[in-house]
Design brief:
CATH superfamily of the largest domain in chain A: MetI-like
Bound molecules: adenosine-5'-diphosphate, magnesium ion
Shape of chain A: flat
Number of strands of chain B: 10
Largest sheet of chain A: none
CATH class of the largest domain in chain A: Mainly Alpha
Largest interface: A-B, 21 and 23 residues
Radius of gyration of chain A: 22 Å
Number of strands of chain A: 0
Number of domains of chain B: 2
Strand content of chain B: 15-25%
Number of helices of chain A: 12
Helix content of chain B: 25-40%
CATH class of the largest domain in chain B: Alpha Beta
Distance between the termini of chain A: 23 Å
Structural class of chain A: mainly alpha
Oligomer: heterodimer
CATH architecture of the largest domain in chain A: Orthogonal Bundle
Strand content of chain A: under 5%
Chain lengths: 259, 265
Amino acid sequence: MTTRSWLTHSRTAAVLLPAIGLILALALWWLATIVFSIDSYLLPDPGDVLVTFLDQPGYLLKETGVSLVETLEGFLLAIVVGVPVALLIVRSVIVERLLYPLLLGINAIPKIAIAPLLVVWFGFGQWPKVLMVLLVCFFPIVISTASGMKSTPVELVELLKSLNASKTQEFFKLRLRYAMPQIFTGLKVAISLAVIGSVIAEFVGATSGLGYVITQSGASADTSLAFAAITLLSIMAILLFYALVLLEHLLLPWAQETR
Amino acid sequence: MIRLDGVGQVFDGRAGEVRALEEIGLHVQENEFVTLIGRSGCGKSTLLRLIAGLLPPTSGRIEVAGEAVSGPRRDVSFMFQRPALLPWRSVVSNVMLPVEISGGDSERGKAQYRDRAHELLELVGLKGFERRLPHELSGGMQQRVSLCRSLIRRPKVMLMDEPFSALDALTRTELSAELQRIQMELATTIVFVTHSIEEAVVLSDRVVVLTPRPGRLREIVEIDIPRPRSLGQNAHLTEVAQISGHLHGLLSEQERPVDLPEARR
Ligand SMILES: Nc1ncnc2c1ncn2[C@@H]1O[C@H](COP(=O)(O)OP(=O)(O)O)[C@@H](O)[C@H]1O
Ligand SMILES: [Mg+2]
C-alpha cells in the first residue's frame, strides 16, 4: 500500500487525520499567543482555557448538557416535522408551489432577529430554544429529503410498477430507501446548524446552557471562560456530526461505494 | 399466448401528438420466442409496455393468456435494458423482490421461492455471490441477477427490452446462449427487443420488423434454423447469413433521407 492510499483508505488514518488537524490548529493558536504576545484577557492560550475548564468541570459539563438536550430535541423535532412536509412536497406539485416560497422566506430570516420574539411568545424555558433549533434545521432537512425522494431512477419506479407494487410499497421499499443518502446529507448540514441555533436562542433569554455562559463571561470580561464554553460547543458539534457519519455507515453500507 | 389486434398508441408530446404505434396485429404462440427489431423510436419499448400493462393502449385490444390486459400481471415479467437492481439489497434479496412485493405466500411458499432463487443464481453462474451487493458485481453479472429476478415467479411471458445491449460483446453472446438454454428448460413465451440482427437471428422463432413514425409492422420473418443456435461454427451458416442479410435490407430500407433530420435530433 502506498502512503497516499493508506492516508485515503485506512480506518486508522480516518480517525488520525482529523485529530492531527485539530492538534495543528491548537498548536497554531498557542503559537500565535506566544509569538504576538497577546494578553490573555484578549486571547487566552489553550492552557488558560484548559485551566478554566478544570476549575469548574461539573458546572461547564452541566451547561453543555443543557445545550445538547435542546439541540437534540430541536433536531429530532425538525426531522419529525420536516420529513412529512418533504413528502407532501414530493407528492403534490400544488403543495410544492404553495410551500416553497414560504420555506425560502422563513429560511432567509436572520434567526437572531426572531430569538427575542420566541422569548416573548414562549417564555424563558426550553421551548424557545428547541423551536429555534427546529427553525434552523427545518430547511436543509426538507430540501434534502424532497430532492432525495425525487431522485428515484425511472427504471426502478417502472420495475415496481411492473411488479404491481402498491403506492405504499413503492414508497417504503423504494423511494424512501433511495433517498436515505441525500437525507443524511441534509441531516449533517442540519446538525451543525442546530448547535448554532441553540446558542443563539440562549443568548437572548436563558438562565443556563453554553450560550448563557458565553454572554455571562462577556459581561464579566472573562475571556478564558468564554473560550472554554466555545471549545465545548465545538467539541459537541464535532461529536454530533461524526455520530451521524457513523450512523450513516452502519445504516447505509451500500451508499459508500455507489456515491 | 399474446394477441394484439389493431393496437395503436398516440402520445401527447410537447411538440404535439406522437403516433408511436399504428395498427399492430400480432399473435405470439405459447413458448414462442418473438423478437421486435427496428430503428430507435419506432415504438418497440412502447409495444412491450403495452403488453406488460404498464400503459393502456389508445386503440385496439391486447390479450395475454386469453384475458384482456388491464394492468401488470403476476405471470408476466419485464426485464429492462439496465439491471434496475435495488442497491441496498443483496443479490438474492433482489431476486426475491417480486415475491416480496406480491406477498400472500406462506412461509413454506417463501422458502420454496428462496430455494428457487438460489437455483436460478446457480444456473446463471452466480453461485457464491448471493450475499453480495449489486455494486460489487460487473455489469454482466448484474444483468444476470436481473434475469433471475424476472424468472423467479415462473412467468408465462417474459418481456425483455434490449436486455443485453449495454453489455460488452462477449458477455452478450454468453447471456444470449444462457437465455436460449433457459427458455428451452423453462418453457416461457418471450417477446424480446434488440438492435442487433445477430441476436435476433440466434434467439428467435420469428422476427418482427417495425418501421418508425408511426410504428407499423413491416414484415414478420420466420427463422427455421434448428436449435441450439450459435454464431460460431455451425451447419447453418448460410441460412443465418441469408436471413441476416434480409433483415439488414428491411432495416436499411427505412433509412430514407427525409427521416434523417429527425433521427439526428
Ligand atoms: N411517455 C411518452 N410520452 C411521449 N412520447 C413518448 C413516450 N414514450 C415514447 N414516446 C415516443 O414514442 C416513440 C416510440 O418510442 P419507444 O417505444 O421508446 O421507441 P423504441 O423503444 O423503439 O426506441 C418515440 O418517438 C418516443 O419519443
Ligand atoms: Mg426502447
